[in-house]
Amino acid sequence: MLQQLGADWQPWPLALGLLAVLLLIGTAIGAAIGLKRWGVPEALLAGGLGLLLAPSGPLPLLPPAVIERWSNLPLALLTLVFATLMLSKPLPRIGSIWRPVTAQLLLALTLAFGQFMVGGLAVLLVLQPLIGAPPVMAALIEVAYEGGHGSAAAMGPSYARLGLASGEALGLAMATVGLLSATLVGALVVLLGRSRRWLLASSLPIAQLAPAAAPAAAPSISPNPVSNSSRGASGNASPDALSNSAKSASPGTSPTASQGGATSSSPGQGDYGPAVWLINLALAGAAVLLGTLMLRGLQELAARWGGGFALVIDGLPVFPLALLGSLLVRLLLERGGKGHWAAARVQGRLGTLAADLLITAATACLDLSLLAEQWLALTVLAVAGLVWNVAVVLLLGPRILPPNWFERGLVEFGQATGVAASGLLLLNMVDPQDQGDALTPFSIKQLLLQPFIAGGIVTVAAPLAIDGWGLPAWTLFCLALVVLWVSLGLWLGRSHTAACPSAAAPAASPPG
User: Residue 403: is the preceding peptide bond cis (ω within 30°)?
Assistant: First the structure.
């Protein structure tokens, strides 16, 4: 029957309607079986149901025209997600917390560029000799683990242009592996931390290892979103508010999904009338428009200058620039005294809905035949990225992040493996009251790095650099950066320990 409807109806209304129904069904089933309790977003289940009903699935009920329309949605939806990221967050003032923020930045950069490095080594040493893998495959770990499903789907066309037709399917599959690994492996790391007494809050019962997420936190995957708690970075939220945001986060939660609203005079506090939604839709649209204009301007410059700059701009999608547009809109609102126009909860719901629809559509469009052909590449890259993340957090975390290194390293592991909300869920397992003050530096770090990694400019430029420089040169470049970040982090850790000897004795001794 649906095949006949697809032939008779206009494809777009049918495609969007079926996508919404699929998401509702997946959300209902996921809520009934408690998927969020274990860190699995219900939108991923909805996408899995769509995969079963796709023309290539075991129950081919969906018309091909619907799948074709769904395959065109991820880039537009991801652009909307990025456009909402900064709108509801007051711009931070780093001030006296520069040291923990710097340490968090250096650990995050080590993880991200290390993923490029180990991806390059895995392709050069294993996958090229065995299966002749294209060099651009080395960029998949970062885009999938750090960026999540949204970035993996949006970068698919770029990979295809560079010779990796299965890039989107592999990226989405690896993003799913990363999401599950962040919860499962993260829980094992928590158990290890409890047994070794690395935790600040070591008295928490093991029963809290998988706390239920707050009902208000809608499931979705965003490209390494800025955590909800970043509102506290500017001094506008109390530590209790920060810990509450961590409690309400689950992997896949949109960046602002569980943020509190603005002040009582703002349109977002308990007032969700049509005017509020229209204002916030207009603000998000303005961010997208600014991003589009910036991209257009860069394209004009690229046409004049040519060379490597043109190569990068030709492959640059609009979503990283929509993030900058979001930041500019927020800046203009604050300068004009209208920051309360951007209602945190409304922006969060917009971003959450867009990310949910993105995951559902992208997962339903997976090409399982490509995954079957590339199972070895998927396994090697997924394992290499996971081993790197665990090693960095357990070996370098205590030397770069003391004191309370475990909580801060754990949230970074979750972010680097299964996007930011996975990190918040893991943090809630070990420190639900944020006694270690891990949320503030993590949130500001997210705000500072979001335009660059995990779906930002570096993620977009990496496959182009691999194609232009060659994989060996790119891998050596990433190795040099990793050495730089680690050296700076170790120096910062030693200088802090020398200045504050009491910090040298955290809750428990570090590994190694």
Answer: yes
The whole model's pTM is what?
Answer: 0.70
Could you give phi then psi for residue 511, rounded to 5 degrees?
A: -70, 165
Q: Are residues 44 and 142 in the same domain?
A: no
Residues 253 and 368 occupy one common structural domain: yes
Chain-centroid distance, C-alpha 403: 26
Tokens in use for 49? Answer: 């149901």
Total count of domains within the chain: 2
Q: Is the dihedral of CA 235, 440, 141, 251 positive or negative?
A: negative
- With respect to residue 288, please indicate whether it lies within any of the assigned structural domains: no
Residues 249 and 135 in one domain: yes
**Same domain for 132 and 46:** no
Residue 221 is classified by DSSP as -
* Co-location of 109 and 38 in the same domain: no
Going by C-beta distance under 8 Å and a sequence separation of 6 or more, which residues neighbour residue 185?
A: 386, 390, 417
Cα distances (Å, whole numbers) of residue 508 to 33, 220, 391, 494 = 37, 35, 18, 17
Q: Given a cut of 80, is residue 142 above it in pLDDT? A: yes
Its domain, for residue 209, covers 97-257+337-504
Distance CA 502, CA 499 (A): 9
Contact (Cβ atoms closer than 8 angstroms) between residue 88 and residue 230: no
Residue 212 included in any domain: yes
Classify residue 123 by its DSSP letter: I
Provide the 8-state DSSP code for 248: T
Distance CA 293, CA 332 (A): 17
Q: Which residues contact 156 (CB under 8 A, 6 or more apart)?
A: 74, 167, 168, 169, 171
Whether residue 30 is found in the same domain as residue 174: no
pLDDT, average across residues 422-435: 77
For residue range 299-343, what is the model confidence (pLDDT) as tens digits?
A: 899 888 877 677 677 767 787 788 889 889 999 998 998 888 998
Q: Could you tell me if 177 and 34 lie in one domain? A: no
Q: Quick check: is 393 in a domain?
A: yes
Handedness of CA 177, 178, 180, 184 (dihedral sign): positive
80, 92 in Cβ contact below 8 A? no
Exposed, middle or buried: residue 130 (CB in 10 Å: 0-12, 13-18, 19+)?
exposed
